[in-house]
Amino acid sequence: MTFDKLEIIDPILKAIGEKGYTHPTPIQEKSIPILLRKRDLLGCAQTGTGKTAAFAIPILQHIYNDATPEKGRRKIKALVVTPTRELAIQIKDSFSEYGKYTGILNTVIFGGVKQGAQTQALNRGVDVLVATPGRLLDLIQQGYISLRDIKYFVLDEADQMLDMGFIHDIRRIIDLLPKRRQSLFFSATMPASIVSLAGKILGNPDRVTVKPEQTTAEKVGQSLYYVSKKAKPKLLIFLLKTEEADSTLVFSRTKHGADKVVKGLQKAGIPAEAIHGNKSQNARQLALSNFKNGSTKVLVATDIAARGIDVSELSLVVNYDLPNIPETYVHRIGRTGRASASGNAISFCDTEEKPYLKDIQKLIRQDIDVVKDHPFLPGGVEDNAVEEVKSDRRRQQPRSSKASKPSNSSRSSSSRSSNSSKSSGSSRTPNSSNSSKPSYSGNKEWRRGNSASKKRAE
Ligand code: AMP
What we know:
By secondary structure, the chain is an alpha/beta fold. It has helices at 10-18, 26-36, 51-65, 85-98, 116-124, 133-141, 158-163, 167-176, 192-201, 212-219, 232-243, 255-267, 281-292, 303-306, 326-333, 354-364, 381-393, 413-425, 432-436, 445-457; strands at residues 41-44, 78-81, 106-109, 128-131, 152-155, 182-187, 206-209, 220-226, 248-251, 272-275, 298-301, 316-319, 343-349, 369-370. The protein is 45% helix and 14% strand. α2 runs parallel beside α3 (51-65), α6 crosses α8 and α15 crosses α16 (354-364). The radius of gyration is 24 Å and the shape is elongated. The structure holds adenosine monophosphate (AMP).
């Protein structure tokens, strides 16, 4: 199936052709015909499946086809509500790109920045508004926005919206919408709370489900490194120096952990930046644009901040910490291998993370290839070297180290977080950058493991 079979109008076909899209992704193939018939839609899909184009193309087409001369400034006809600023900006950019030959105007509003530039754009008049919930309600209250003329409403990433506590804001927004409208509702997961919220927004929707969990996991080359917590910083440096990836996204479970990883990398001469909720909006945008334009090769992110990072050339994802929610693993590795591209994902697993690994492998229904020979194997020479430095430093307060001996430890989050910060601290040891060099003289099975897994994925 190619796009021209979907009855998309020429100005949009031309724009997506220029983007290099030839074939619709599954969510696009299923949703575009439904949406062009002006039906409501309940979509179970996540970022990375091509869902933005799935809703943006039909909305642009309707606005284009139904255009009538307007007196005064343009009225807002389509509203897309999404949980994070990064996603909002990304969706706005997609509307601009797909709609570049339609004359349709859009803008984006989000909190955390001054409102002046946003209200100026609104005053000039737009057809499509992309917004995060808080700033939207704020500007409605101040009289800059009216939802009276909305004909198309999209609620994006509904599950994340609820996770972030936006439920009351969403209800208030829904109450302000005209009753006659086309509504689209997207969520990566469909627990009961989401289904009930969908029932309040949608009439009698058509349903579309794409299961990126399996498809994404299958096309990404995945490999697993067993490593002790304390050796993770060095393994990361070692891999970044040997993998030669153009752009690497490293996932840390905590904001503090992300900052520590960045410090360790910078000390080892690897330019890296962190992106997480404690950073200002401007710092996040700057880190993201440095990463997109290639001046920063390594971005270290927490899960929430990483949602919405859309970098088409992303070649490597590193799970520095394994997530305790298996679906998060799939979201993370979906950052590489987006749409039609394939990518690589490397995961570190310490003893305490083994139960998480089990859950992940159950979800993706495959065993991740283990790299059996690498310099920082738990209990190996390099691993013990990290330990020796640490015990030297702790001579004043000697205590036995259990870290190098795998044990069946608990999954309690408190023990995980305290250990994790200890591990990151080891990157500050005097020998850190020296032993990070790939001085390892063993065979290169770790590389073979990696390419074997990629090959299998292809
Ligand atoms: P999304 O799920 O909307 O965030 O899209 C994920 C990525 O896929 C983005 O980088 C899009 O530019 C890209 N994409 C969307 N649709 C297509 C398509 N039909 N062909 C190729 N790439 C696409």
